[in-house]
Amino acid sequence: MSSETTRRTRYDVDRNELGELLTGEPRFRVDQLWKGLYEQLGEPAELTTLPKSLRARLDAELPAALTTVVERVNDDGDTVKYLFELPGGSRIETVLMLYPDRVTVCVSSQAGCAMGCGFCATGQAGFTRQLTTGEIVEQVVRASRKARELNRRLANVVFMGMGEPLANEANVWAAIERINTDLGLGARHLTVSTVGLVPGIKRLTEWPMQVNLAVSLHAANDSLRDEMVPINRRYPLDMLMGACADYLIAKGRRLSFEWALIDGVNDRDSDARELAALCRSLPLAAHVNLIPLNPTPGYPTRGTPLGRVHQFRDRLEELGVNATVRRNRGTDIDAACGQLAAGQPVQPVSLGRRRDTADVDDNIPDAAHDTAHDTA
Ligand code: SAH
Ligand code: SF4
Predict the structure, then answer these.
(1) 67-375 has which CATH code?
(2) φ/ψ (deg, to 5) at 258
(3) Which keywords belong to this entry (predicted)?
(4) Residue 300: left if φ>0, alpha if ψ -120 to 50, beta else—which one?
(5) In which element (H, E) is residue 293 found?
(6) Torsional sign, CA 144, 147, 153, 157
(7) What is the mean pLDDT of the chain?
(8) Atom 18 of ligand 1 has which residue's CA nearest to it?
(9) Ligand 2, atom nearest to 167 Cα
């Protein structure tokens, strides 16, 4: 754990605690404040149903957790990336994705990540601290508010920003419950992505909430996966597949595997065959999401060229595995896992197109939103 101090912020406080904060006020004030924060998605200062003096007190006593450092919109205006500063100074990112038929937010669960996957900018930066429940919920509130300003409705949340959600289980579970109950987003529209922390997958299996699970696989044999995803040494593929099988049997839901395609590393015919064999070993079909690797400062190998990404997909289909090439977005705004926070110094809002790779169209790993969407 880091020594950074964390304090309770606006969305860390539940309804009972709001009530305590309003001791001495008429009882209906709790309802007004609750609606203001969770339905209007407003700042206390904007809640004109409340007396001015109370608004000022709430502003001071219920501080926001997230300070916007950068808000960047991509060229097409369908992706908005935020770099937020947290109390204590660490930074996280949140990405809002506006599809024609749905709106999804990609949230962070930790500042940094301790899992050390070499190809990931967040992993390269290391771990700073856990996010509190309120810091996770507030990302969804901010995205939801932005979507509303754009006349859209946010309905999906994917835990695919910075951090490993199953390494911050208590706060992530609590945030999911709050997002579901207090913000009204359906559990089937919420997706947890994990690098493969088996104990967390087991607890998710036992949990009654029907959230979606995405497992970042990237390699289907232990020697390659040990290298790409170091936590594989603790939870090797047979354990991971065992936990995935139990999840599928218990939940009867589709599981997604994420596979970031890296040139010459995990895009060979043998990789496709090994992946297909793993998928076939499961009791229910898994869906594979292929993401061309997004370039990061600390990893020299390139993403697989797009033509070969499609060939890999076709090969998996031939082998009987459902696979989708993710139409990633946002190269022009560094909207990829960990990139904006890692890319210091941060430039102000830029709408200019940046092209430093010929092969990768754009870069948000937006996988699993289909899972969330299809099963709704
Ligand atoms: N820690 C979790 C969730 C956050 S990472 C996990 O690993 O699943 C979200 C997704 O982005 C994961 O599938 C991860 O493997 C992928 N990712 C990380 N770095 C990437 C990169 N450089 N290019 C493409 N995808 C990447
Ligand atoms: Fe952490 Fe996921 Fe990045 Fe691995 S890929 S370092 S688990 S955020």
Answers:
(1) 3.20.20.70
(2) -95, 140
(3) 4Fe-4S, Cytoplasm, Iron, Iron-sulfur, Metal-binding, Methyltransferase, rRNA processing, S-adenosyl-L-methionine, Transferase
(4) alpha
(5) none
(6) negative
(7) 87
(8) 120
(9) 7
Tell me the best of 164, 240, 257 to mutate to test the pocket of ligand 2, counting ligand atoms within 8 Å of each CB and taking the most.
164
Instruction: Give the number of the ligand closest to the Cα of residue 165.
Output: 1
160 lines ligand 1 (CB under 6 A): yes
Closest CA to 177 of 205, 136, 131, 206: 136
Class of domain 8-61: mainly alpha
- Within 10 angstroms of residue 129's Cβ, the number of other Cβ atoms is 20
Model confidence pLDDT, tens digit, residues 23-75? 999 999 999 999 999 999 999 999 999 999 999 999 999 999 999 999 999 88
**61-96 confidence digits (pLDDT tens):** 999 999 999 999 988 889 999 999 999 999 999 999
The pTM score is 0.90
H or E segment to which residue 161 belongs: none
Model pLDDT, residue 297:
85
Q: What percent of the chain has pLDDT over 70?
A: 85
Q: Copy the structure tokens of residue 217.
A: 């696989």
* Residue 339, pLDDT score: 65
Q: How far is CA 128 from the centre of its chain?
A: 17
Comparing 335 with 142, which gets the higher pLDDT?
Answer: 142
Helix (H) or strand (E) holding 259: strand 255-261
337 counts as catalytic: yes
Averaged pLDDT for residues 136-161: 97
Which ligand ends up closest to the CA of 113? Answer: 2
Q: Is 84 helix (H, G, I), strand (E, B) or coil?
A: strand
Judge whether 4 and 88 are in contact, CB under 8 Å: yes
**DSSP string across 163-222:** S-GGGSHHHHHHHHHHHHHTS---GGGEEEEES--HHHHHHHHHSSS--EEEEE---SSH
In a mutational test of the pocket of ligand 1, which residue from 95, 104, 216 has the highest number of ligand atoms less than 8 Å from its CB?
A: 216
| 3: confidence class by pLDDT, cuts 50, 70, 90 | very low
How many angstroms does the Cα of residue 195 sit away from the middle of ligand 2? Answer: 6
Each domain of the chain, given as residue ranges in start order, spans 8-61, 67-375
Atom of ligand 1 nearest to the CA of 163: 1
